[in-house]
Amino acid sequence: MKTKIIGAVIVAGGLSSRMKDFKPLLKIDKKTMIETTASNFLKAGVDRIVVVTGHRSQDIEKQLAGYNIKCIKNENYRTTHMFDSVCIGLKELGQDADMVFVTPSDSPFVQQFTLKKMIDEVDLKNIKAAQPSYEGTDGHPVLLSAQGVKEVLGHNGVNGMQGALDNMEEGFLNIPFVDPGITLDADTPIDYFKLLEFGSNMHIPSTSLCLKMYEYFNVPQGVREHSVRVAMEAVNICEILDKKGIQLNRRLVASAALLHDIAKGHPRHSSLGAKWLLEMGYEEMSTIVLNHANIEYVSETPTEVEVVYLADKMVKGTEVVSIKERFKEKEEIYKNDKDILKNIERREACAMKLFNEVFSA
Questions:
Q1: How far apart, in whole angstroms, are the C-alpha atoms of residue 347 and residue 145?
Q2: Is 344:330 a contact under the CB 8 Å cutoff?
Q3: How far apart, in whole angstroms, are the C-alpha atoms of residue 105 and residue 90?
Q4: Each residue of 213-258: pLDDT tens digit?
Q5: What is the pLDDT of residue 1?
Q6: Cα–Cα dist 28/220, whole Å
Q7: Of 65, 81, 185, 196, whose CB neighbour count within 10 A is largest?
Q8: Residue-wise pLDDT tens digits, 112-121
């Protein structure tokens, strides 16, 4: 049960001089940058959001009118720095929050997984401030505890927010994540184009990102090798189905197969792995991983879910085996437990039906 009150300060008061356009109101898909950034925090369960405006403040307020968000203007935005706007936002929140995220308006793609993990870390480790990083590069947002907020407000402004963090000799934590969104912003037009490109491809991780997730989640080597073999078989199945006129998303299938056992070794690994992937923004993959070990029925036309399910049931370790061989060991272990054995036999029957559908002439 959630007990902490979480706030967020989003700074949107600058002139966007390097962008040559106003960053907060640039479009990311169907929403503006400021809406996308704010919505991301709301989705993570942030209770209070303060947006600090300046240039085109009325336009931002109009854009956010349908959200439960408070806007406050930095009247001196032309002559002050971003850190001054941060302090205005923190003072507006006052003592109404136990923790506060601080971010610019042009950081729309930070994962829910990252935000929730940061909250857990600050809460459990009783630290003043946490900053996420990706591949050794620090990014947004920063999360401050109540004590961290006091120290930031007491900072003399030298080197801005980074200077305030540097002064926290104790109680500062840098947390690495497998989240490229941490380091993406839109300071220049090229940065903005990169954001647009990332947004259009962010729902399926690249192969290199999948491999980084192996490291992040400490996936055992044997599980990695099994997953790679399953991914190869899954792509081969897609090739066979394609010749039958059934076209599936091979990139989705390959990435989901690579990560289907990402939580292997944990209790209820299918559910946990699916939860991780959902919070990282990979909704379709999450569904596939959730169902990779057990499907209730076989669709009339195979989908990406069933392809990964079948591929997993064709591989034992790193070897391709018959469906019967794949289930033989489990059937022997649970031969005296009728309920479990019945479920195993049902899963085997589903796999056989899929196999026959795919490989029949």
A1: 48
A2: yes
A3: 15
A4: 999 999 999 999 999 999 999 999 999 999 999 999 999 999 999 9
A5: 46
A6: 38
A7: 185
A8: 999 999 999 9
The number of beta carbons lying within 10 Å of the beta carbon of residue 318 is: 13
The ranges of the chain annotated as CATH 3.90.550.10 are: 6-201
Residue 36: half-sphere exposure toward Cβ, Cα within 13 Å: 23
Q: Which residue type, as a one-letter code, is found at position 309?
A: Y
How far apart (Å, rounded) are the C-alpha atoms in residues 116 and 305? 27
For 207-359, CATH gives 1.10.3210.10
Residue 279 carries which side chain, given as an amino acid letter?
E
CATH of range 6-201; options 3.90.550.10, 3.30.70.2190, 3.40.190.10, 3.30.360.10 = 3.90.550.10
Rounded CA-CA distance 279/12 in Å is 26
What pLDDT does residue 335 have? 83
Residue that is written with structure tokens 């003399």 in the block: 156
Q: Assess contact for 83 and 157: CB atoms under 8 A.
A: yes
Are 97 and 47 in contact, with CB atoms under 8 Å apart?
yes
Q: Phi-psi region for residue 136, left (φ > 0), alpha (ψ -120 to 50) or beta?
A: left
Read off the tokens for 249.
């998303």
13-33 exposure pattern, b = at least 16 Cβ within 10 A, e = fewer: bbebeebeebbbbbebeeebb
Q: Is residue 261 a contact partner of residue 273, using CB atoms and an 8 Å limit? A: yes
338 three-class SS: helix
Residue 300 confidence (pLDDT) above 90: no
Q: Boundaries of CATH 1.10.3210.10 in the chain? A: 207-359
